[in-house]
Amino acid sequence: MNLEIDRGRLISEIEALAAISEADPPAVTRIVFTPTDLKARAWLRAQCEDAGLTLRQDAIGNTFARWNGSDPAVPAVGTGSHIDAIPNAGKYDGVVGVLGGLEAIRALRRSGFRPTNSIELLVFTSEEPTRFGIGCLGSRLLSGSLSAQDAKRLKDSAEKSIEDVRGNAGLRGELDEVKLPDDYYKAFVELHIEQGPVLERQQIPLGVVTSIAAPASMRIAIEGAGGHAGGVLMPDRRDALCAAAELVLAIENAARSSGAVDTVATVGICEVFPGAINSIPSRVRLTADIRDIDLERRDSVIKAMENACSTISAKRKVAIHIELLNADAPAQCAPSVVEALSDACRKHQQKFLAMVSRAYHDSLFMSRIAPTAMLFIPCRNGYSHRPDEYASPEDIARGTLVLAEALATLSA
Ligand SMILES: [Zn+2]
Asked: Which end is more exposed in the chain, N or C (fewer Cβ atoms within 10 Å of the end residue's Cβ)?
């Protein structure tokens, strides 16, 4: 099999898709089900049809483009990612996995390879949480991680329901028909830019992802008592910000002392009320984002945080309320798919690094219904979700080549 990636065509397609954007270049903004997103979807469908793939769309707009294998009775091998982009983002997040996946399929066809298992390009709807406040909407529904009933309750900032929005986008069918059967895919592989600095720093061109970290995120409200900064003496204070300060450090300490580098915890928002120089803070709102690749270890940090809340609340006589926003389980990638990717790297004499995905992806949810792994390529300075996000044509083509090789192994 002589696999050749048409790098020039692939890069020009990435540029063409980047031009379908609400933001001025080089920035890309493509929010799910806006006219821009619909235009991008139509453009992409045309490319898939041009490649001879059979198209199907489900009720939430996940798009499947299939190259039929010689045995229609066996499960398909899937690859893909997303094309939606947060406001003021770059050209490569998600797109590399979609257009790279398409080019991998075209390269396999050109080589004369004929798969036994069908190979399917899957383009997920709304990986980014921009419009409905929840990320990986398409893959959550595909994997049954989000029920149709819960999905129907989602609204955008204009109070438009998901049912209305998808109806306006021309999507028919019922959301409860989106979930895929557990044996639908034999394997799923997602090619993606790393969105971190590890590969570039170590000058290794490829990363084979062995586990995907997942966040638990919480909103924390602390109620103390306000008062005059001069009038209320220290023994009488119930300062909500002082309580918050202790809690922030307790969260940091819980992550630092987990015993693993993969445990991370972040307090990213701290709102102080009333916020005046001469007024004791009566109320504070915090957020916490706690991630790990090990569910038990992550949950032990959450437990430590909850214990700290009880202690601080008793000691400082403040009320602390924790609201859990989401807590997705991390995923271990499937050894069979990790092996196929590693073998493909070796076959093409490419160095690779076995690594953790710190960001989460549609693959996190796909791993619940299919043996799944990811392939990372470097991106400049680790930048992502910004207009200067960049991956070189060489790295994109290399990732696409290894992806094609792995798809061949998995579908042979
Ligand atoms: Zn992405």
From this structure: N
